[in-house]
Amino acid sequence: MFRFVHASDLHLGAAFGSAMGGFPEDAVKTMRQSPYRAFDRVIDAAIDSEAAFVVLAGDLCNRADGGIKPELALRTGARRLADAGIRTFAVYGNHDYLAPGRPDLDWPDRAHVFPVSEAEPVVVQIDGEDRAYLFGLSYGRADERTNLAARYPVPPAELFSVGILHAACGPVSGHATYAPCTPEDLASRGYDYWALGHVHSEQVLRDFEPMIAYAGNTQSLNPNETGPRGCRIVTVADDGSISAEFRETDVVRRFLVTVDIGPLQREQDLLDTLEQKMKESARDRGSAEACVLRFRLAGRGPLHRFLAQPDHVRDLREHLGEAGTSYTTPVWIEAIKVETRPDIDLDARRGAEDFLGEFLRLANAVASDPEGLANARKMLTDQMKPEHARLLAQLGPGLVSEDALHRYLQAAEVLGADHLLSADD
Ligand SMILES: [Mn+2]
């Protein structure tokens, strides 16, 4: 029996950019350190579980030109593993592709980074015997669009074989299709385990002959990356059968919490509910030491009028953010997104023979007519600065997607109704 650890997408050096606005200083510091500390926890997991080796499947540094600190951290980690008798095998991915100009630094003896091409496989000895065969390829450019799997040599049948690959395997929603391949492609190569990187959540694409899995990233990097993040501890039994266990390594955990304002009557009810949710997140933090929350307020209720004022929402975020900072497990508020509706039945009012009814019917007509939607889209882009409109056109239809357009129209309808209702008073 032996074990190895599969991790990927460490994104060391991720700066979290503009997403840091409005966070207290402590939060900024903790978040910037979190990828490094999550990597430390991967190493701890390897040492605790007495792993024979660690495989790192790309996007280890956040940027190919991200300076020396992430590279040094990688080597420090590999050194700590080597000192514990554990080997490290790594490939670089689309974020940290190997190109001229990368810092030229030594790796400890027991670490091995697979190059961009002409790579040699490595045979790992465990207790003096040849046990595992490893192969991987690093990216030489960010935009790798070839199927790299086709370049993996056929492994010898008598050794346990691991293919380390940073790739979009099968359909990967929300991730670019770099080094595209299918689980069938990989299964046909003869390896026992495919240690994949690129997709940021743990995913087992196939659990038997071969096992094909993404470990996901070790630390959440943006508000959409909610829930636990970590690495896989893989155990290979003497008969070759594989079992794997997920080990949480994240230091800061993200939550998206939706609250229906329907049952809430008073501002105090809202405060109490949101604080309750913050405490629940702190309780459900798993391995993390701090939580970052995004609230999404939805539904129809009397508090809509209060929430329709951006100043109120700003003050609410500030107040809750301060409260959360003082918890034993800090809870920071990333944003409060308001998608609530007035406390009247807009659909019922749509039939009324008054100005509001007329407005609502018109809004509905725009949203349900292809020509109306096309006009709304044109109005949105016409309002933009030319450089933004150009950028948007380059990025494709995704930014003003059908879905986004409907959300904007719905928000516009609610805003219009709010104005007309307050004019009634
Ligand atoms: Mn990545």
What's the SSE blueprint?
Elements (H helix, E strand, L loop, with lengths): L1 E6 L17 H24 L4 E5 L11 H15 L3 E5 L19 E3 L8 E5 L2 E8 L23 E7 L16 H5 L5 E5 L5 E5 L3 E4 L15 E7 L5 E7 L3 E9 L6 H17 L6 E11 L3 H4 L2 H16 L5 E11 L4 H4 L5 H13 L2 H13 L3 H10 L6 H23 L1
Parallel strand pairs: 1-2, 2-3, 3-4, 6-7, 7-8, 8-10, 13-14, 14-15
Antiparallel strand pairs: 1-11, 5-6, 9-10, 11-12
Manganese (II) ion (MN) binds next to loops.
Note down, in words, how this protein is organized.
The chain is of the alpha/beta class and 425 residues long. It folds into 3 domains: 2-248, Metallo-dependent phosphatases (Purple Acid Phosphatase, chain A, domain 2); 251-343, no CATH class; 349-425, no CATH class. The chain is 34% helix and 23% strand. The protein is built from 11 helices and 15 strands. It has helices at residues 25-48, 69-83, 183-187, 267-283, 304-307, 310-325, 346-349, 355-367, 370-382, 386-395, 402-424; strands spanning 2-7, 53-57, 87-91, 111-113, 122-126, 129-136, 160-166, 193-197, 203-207, 211-214, 230-236, 242-248, 252-260, 290-300, 331-341. Strands 4-3-2-1-11-12 form a 6-stranded mixed sheet, covered by helices on one side. It has a 6-stranded mixed sheet with strand order 5-6-7-8-10-9. Helix 4 packs across helix 6 (310-325). The protein starts with a strand and ends with a helix. The relative contact order is 0.10. Manganese (II) ion binds next to loops.
